[in-house]
Amino acid sequence: MKKIILAISIIAMTGPSYGNNIKDPNVSGQFYTANPVALSAQIDKFIEQAQVQPSQKDILIVLSPHAGYVYSGGVAAHSFKAVSKKDVDTVVVIAASHYFPYDGVSIWQEGAFKTPLGTVPVDDAFAKKLILKNEKFYYKPLVFEKEHSVEVQIPFLQKTFADFRIVPVLMGQASYDLCRDLAESLNELIGDREDVLVVVSTDMSHFHTDDKAREIDQNTLQAIANFEHKKIYDNCKAHKGMELCGFVPVTTALLLAKERGLTGIERLSYATSGDVSGDKSRVVGYTSMIIFDEGNSSSDNGQQNEETEVDGVKPLTHAQKKELMRIAKETIHHFVKTGTQKDFTSGDPRLEAVEGAFVTIHKKGKLRGCIGNIIGQGPLYQTVRNMAVAAASHDPRFAPVTTDELKDIDIEISVLSQPQVVDDPQVIEMGVHGVIVSQGIFRKGVFLPQVADETGWTREQFLSRLCAQKAGLPPDAWKDPETKIEIFTANVFAEHDVQ
User: Fold this and answer.
1) In this structure, which CATH number among 3.40.640.10, 3.40.50.300, 3.40.830.10, 2.60.120.10 belongs to the domain 22-293?
2) Cα separation of 357 and 490, whole Å?
3) CA 457 – CA 460 distance, rounded (Å)
4) What's the whole-number average pLDDT of the chain?
5) Looking at residue 377, what is its pLDDT?
6) Residue 333 phi, psi dihedral angles, 5° rounding
7) Which of 8, 114, 143, 181 is 20 to 30 Å from 295 by CA-CA measure?
8) Residue ranges of the chain that CATH labels 3.30.1490.150
9) In sequence order, what are the residues at sequence separation of 6 or more whose Cβ sits closer than 8 angstroms to the Cβ of residue 284?
């Protein structure tokens, strides 16, 4: 069993010979520091601060950003920390060529890649077998000359695993069919090996305002979560509401997941460069994600581990629910009385996970406000705080809550799973599934699972009212093939549940 390394000391040593084909770094001293001690410490800090735990899931694929570490390193650390328990021998790094246009896939076939933290050998046997799979797979070292998208992943790998080899893959303007060919070839070469990891290097939207970037990126993240590989390829290529500089590698990764029957996907972190720089006028988006085999996960002791999901939602302890309720209640009271938003902090990794949530306010048993984010845009505790303010003051159906009403209101919180697209409305379970219907970007409506319990509607009534009342669509639009239907589950709890 290989040992996982999350902290290393930098020592001078002689190592194996890789011949003359050692790739020197392109962006050392630019995208990350060239000082090995400082670089090691910086990555250690990113990993320590990443709000995830090493996962027991059988992870094959991770998505990681490739910008300068000061901007994207904190996001990237989530992927590598999550996968750090995996016993890894070969890492295939799939990235996009930013500087050289070409129709094909360039694979570095032998030698090693060098970073300030040392030299990592290429798995030449794997690389050469991959090249032989297709006439458009070849060794073209020129395209690696300026490229950063493979390189910036390697120091994180060096701080996460020991004794591993890499297969650096740069994709040019590959067609969708070539993405599929690469996915099929990787699937054949991986076979039944469990010691292979695929790292997909990509950033998200580029150079929009922060609000616009988040809107675009949420569309893209949702499509990735739904494994919509063709939609991602087509929309990113046509610049239609989605942006990924690595959309070709991402398409390949999702096709590989399909080949291997992987159905588990989890977004670990999302941020923009504006979160670091403070400049929200022109930002770049970043995410970290893992893709895994849902049917082949294990825990160290054979018991249910802490990441097990209940109805698609990671469980919350009583104490965590109580803390979220405290945040929501104090936020509403503070905002209604002062007009300002109260700040909170959390040292609980579970509450700092990025998840969607709704906050619902009732007054003497009647709805008084309900606002939420289907897909989280920050830590859960902050989403609950923000939605508490919105439910109390921005629900267009109601006037803002007043100080006189505070004594009469009750709060309910719904923590949501990732939405999944369904083709057959008959799979929707009343009282279990929340539903989103949409046509395009602007016609969208959502009902939480508890709406069915509160109204007693049939499935048909539920969907018809959702289309008409929430999405501004005809009542029978849910029958239209052009209408997208997504379902999600929710962990719902009220004040009386956490006393």
Assistant:
1) 3.40.830.10
2) 8
3) 8
4) 89
5) 76
6) -60, -45
7) 181
8) 420-490
9) 67, 71, 203, 204, 205, 206, 207, 213, 272, 273
Contact 170, 96 (CB under 8 A): yes
Query: What is the rounded distance in angstroms from the CA atom of residue 98 to the CA atom of residue 184?
Result: 24
Mean pLDDT of 105-134: 96
In the chain, residues under CATH classification 3.40.830.10 are 22-293
How many residues belong to the chain?
A: 499
The candidate with the shortest Cα–Cα distance to 359, out of 379, 318, 396, 329, is 329
In this predicted model, what pLDDT tens digit does every residue of 432-475 receive, in sequence order? 899 999 998 889 999 998 888 888 899 999 999 999 999 999 99
Concatenated DSSP letters of 45-69: HHHHH-S-----SEEEEEEE--S-H
- Fold of domain 420-490: Dna Ligase; domain 1 (3.30.1490)
Q: What CA–CA distance (Å, rounded) separates 243 from 228?
A: 14
Residue 15 has pLDDT above 80, yes or no: no
Give the C-alpha separation, 333 to 135, whole Å.
66
Degrees to nearest 5, angle at CA 73 with 70 and 78: 155
pTM, two decimal places:
0.60
Spatial CA neighbour of 144 closest among 27, 270, 233: 27
Report how far residue 195's alpha carbon sits from residue 90's, in angstroms, rounded to the nearest whole number. 7
**Residue located via tokens 């297969």:** 167
Average pLDDT, integer, range 38-54 = 93
CATH number of 318-417: 3.30.700.20
273-324 pLDDT, tens per residue? 998 999 999 999 999 999 998 766 544 333 333 444 444 567 788 888 999 9
98 strand-pairing partners = none
pLDDT of residue 88: 96
Domain limits, CATH 3.30.700.20, in the chain: 318-417
- d(C-alpha 254, C-alpha 135), whole Å: 22
SS3 for 494? strand
Of 303, 313, 328, give the one whose Cα is nearest residue 415: 313
Q: Which amino acid, one-letter code, is at 481?
A: P
> Do residues 5 and 162 make contact, with C-beta atoms less than 8 angstroms apart?
yes
Contact 196, 186 (CB under 8 A): no
Return d(Cα 25, Cα 152) in angstroms, integer: 9
Quote the pLDDT of residue 21. Answer: 87
